[in-house]
Amino acid sequence: MKPVYINSAVCISAQDTLNAEFFHTMEAEMTSVMLNAIAPNYKEFIPPAQIRRMSKTVKMSAVAAQKALIQAGVEMPDAIIVGTGMGCEEDSEKFLKNVIENNEEFLTPTHFIQSTHNTVAGQIALATSCHAYNFTYVNPGSSLEMSLLDAKLQIEHDEANNILVGATDEKAVRTMELYQLNGTIKKEEDLPADVLNSASEGVVWGEGSAFFVVSSEKSESTYAQLGAVTFINTLEESEVSDFICGFLSRNNLNPSDLDAVLLGFSGDLKSDRYYNTAQGIFKDADQLYYKHLSGEFNTSGGFAFFMANQILKRKEVPEVMKINKELSKDSIRHILIYNHLHGEDHSLILLRKA
């Protein structure tokens, strides 16, 4: 099968991931139930007149996409594929608020136009004058994985050489209020949030935007090779082992062949049990977690994918991500990411050292 390389990886998150020195300065935030992405100086990347009309997720994505293309040395991608769970939440809320306040009359279309989920991919295409394949995947917890699989298939079938793939989601005030009411987000009294040893349900919610250039050819900036991607909507806890081992077997690997595993522990007592089961499969691998750094959100897998690329590039693992600190691999060649959202949309992503 034709190899698929990852030639750039850029992320805006609750950590200062645009800073070259972020790898050793990341810190977990355990005193808040919601994490804000660290925004860059948007004026350095986007004309001020456009910034005012952009929602947070569009701005984050515009910057991350621009930097990913520059990092990969690609002026014009052959395709733009974006995954998002909630799309442009802020503009959606503004539009619905106007509908209510104006009794469904005299509505300006701006917020409605900008609230659609494919706004991000469309804005990137406009900024780059890209008229090629442009697609947005919308799914609660596996939008990134669908986007990566689409890109992988296109490259393997010689339909494209350089594809910009992104994952993005933002927080919006009213949606966060609803998440707190239905117990999706932890209560303040459950803080500080110990993600690995949580005794309460709910998660710490976050936001972020991650973009990657996947390619049919290696370059000087190549981090890793995308080995395989799979996902399933529902899974019983007893089926986790078969799900993971079957995936590895199809890719000619055993659990012992993996050097590191990123597990999506979110601090939710109810759904983290899947990861507890997975831990037993990978006793000989570096077990890592990441949502104490990024927060949980629909496309938090983008942060995990970014970190996996960074680990392969830098050939080391940040201490703040380690679960089994007593184990340390001399070299890292295979990394597996296992993630789900609230016990649904289970996904596996395999990366190899390029």
UniProtKB/TrEMBL annotation:
Q: Which domain of life is it from?
A: Bacteria
Entry keyword set: Transferase
A single GO molecular-function term is: 3-oxoacyl-[acyl-carrier-protein] synthase activity
Instruction: Kindly indicate whether the keyword Transmembrane belongs to this entry.
Output: no
Q: Does the keyword Cell membrane apply?
A: no
Occurrences of domain Beta-ketoacyl synthase-like N-terminal (ranges): 46-217
Q: Which InterPro entries match?
A: Beta-ketoacyl_synthase (IPR000794), Ketoacyl_synth_N (IPR014030), Thiolase-like (IPR016039)
Q: Which GO terms describe its biological process?
A: fatty acid biosynthetic process
One Pfam family from the record:
ketoacyl-synt
Name of the protein in its database record: Beta-ketoacyl synthase chain length factor
Q: What organism does the UniProt record list as the source?
A: Marnyiella aurantia
